[in-house]
């Protein structure tokens, strides 16, 4: 696998790789997201307790899972950047951060819109909601720290450090529903057991999740391409690729 | 199909406001994010082309003044 991965550490190769991947990721993401969400909105059954509000699940659960796996991805890239000094890993940390922040914001906002009719409140300072809000602040912290240094390399290093340290929050979010008393329900899919969601709801949920995942990867590809170009703009290969002459 | 009519679908059994609020915010943010990512790449391309053209102009004038 490392034989296959190693060439991607070269910015030019990674730029082309992301360019090939992007249209397929975007196209499949939009198609699968459409199928998953229409299925969830129109064809999936009501919940016997939550009625139609359960349809918020098809965006809430995927965005919440994505917010955590995107953070893990960013932390791995940050670790690689800090330990092995891989340039493109450093750039991907900053390429990933705003995308993860948006998914986190979506999970919080959809959760509020679901909480109001079902729990009777938009917001509650309980374990799950608070730790998820901290995740949003971690993403924003990474972006802000990078911007706070006039030297991009120093900024990148400090931001990566925060990204790596902040990864402790991911298991805290996941287990918060078990460790503390909370309004939020426990895990239904991500557990060492068969999922406790009926197939008529599980399928549209998994399809929506796949669609969100592909969309995240597509946007990361796009931002990484921009980041590579920005950092390498004085290299001959960029001029040869974009300049045309 | 879980709904009898389109207005039934919009009403979502009385929870329409919350469900459409959630979906509206989600897709609003996602479209905004995607638009921003595309804009970034486009802005870089524009900026890069301007810089290239400028460098070329400078080179041309230098050749005229100091042939």
From TrEMBL, chain A:
Instruction: Write down the superkingdom of origin.
Output: Bacteria
Q: Where in the cell is it found?
A: Cell inner membrane; Membrane
Q: Where would you say this protein principally sits, based on its record?
A: membrane
Transmembrane residue ranges: 21-44, 64-84, 91-109, 129-149, 161-181, 201-222
Q: Does the keyword Transport apply?
A: yes
Question: Keywords assigned by UniProt?
Answer: Cell inner membrane, Cell membrane, Cytochrome c-type biogenesis, Membrane, Transmembrane, Transmembrane helix, Transport
Q: Which residues form the Cytochrome c assembly protein domain?
A: 6-184
Q: How does it sit in the membrane?
A: Multi-pass membrane protein
PANTHER family from the UniProt entry: CYTOCHROME B_B6 PROTEIN-RELATED, HEME EXPORTER PROTEIN C
Q: What is known about what this protein does?
A: Required for the export of heme to the periplasm for the biogenesis of c-type cytochromes.
Family per record: Belongs to the CcmC/CycZ/HelC family.
Protein name per Swiss-Prot or TrEMBL: Heme exporter protein C
Give the source species: Alkalimonas delamerensis
Give the encoding gene's name. ccmC
């Amino acid at each position: 696998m490392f034989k296959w991965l190693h060439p991607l550490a070269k910015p030019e190769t990674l730029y082309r790789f992301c360019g090939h991947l992007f249209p397929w990721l975007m196209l499949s993401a939009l198609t699968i997201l459409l199928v998953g969400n229409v299925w969830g909105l129109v064809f999936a059954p009501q919940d016997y307790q939550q009625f139609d509000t359960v349809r918020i699940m098809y965006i809430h659960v995927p965005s919440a899972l994505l917010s955590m796996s995107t953070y893990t991805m960013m932390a791995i890239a940050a670790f690689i950047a800090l330990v092995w000094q891989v340039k493109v890993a450093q750039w991907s940390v900053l390429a990933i951060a705003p995308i993860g922040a948006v998914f986190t914001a979506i999970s919080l906002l959809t959760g509020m819109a679901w909480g109001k009719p079902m729990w009777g409140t938009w917001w509650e300072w309980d374990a799950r909601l608070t730790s998820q809000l901290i995740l949003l602040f971690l993403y924003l912290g990474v972006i802000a720290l990078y911007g706070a240094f006039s030297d991009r390399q120093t900024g990148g290093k400090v931001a990566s450090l925060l990204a790596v340290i902040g990864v402790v929050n991911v298991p805290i979010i996941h287990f918060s529903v078990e460790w503390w008393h909370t309004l939020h329900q426990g895990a239904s899919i991500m557990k060492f057991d068969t999922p406790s969601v009926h197939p008529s709801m599980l399928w549209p949920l998994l399809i929506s999740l796949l669609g969100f995942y592909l969309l995240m990867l597509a946007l990361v590809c796009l931002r990484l391409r921009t980041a590579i170009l920005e950092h390498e703009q004085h290299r001959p290969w960029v001029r040869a690729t974009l300049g045309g002459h | 199909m879980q709904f009898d009519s389109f207005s039934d679908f919009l009403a979502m059994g009385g929870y329409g406001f919350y469900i459409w609020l959630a979906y509206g915010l989600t897709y609003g943010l996602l479209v905004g994010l995607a638009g921003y990512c595309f804009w970034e790449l486009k802005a870089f391309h524009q900026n890069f082309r301007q810089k290239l053209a400028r460098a070329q102009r400078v080179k041309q004038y230098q050749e005229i003044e100091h042939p």
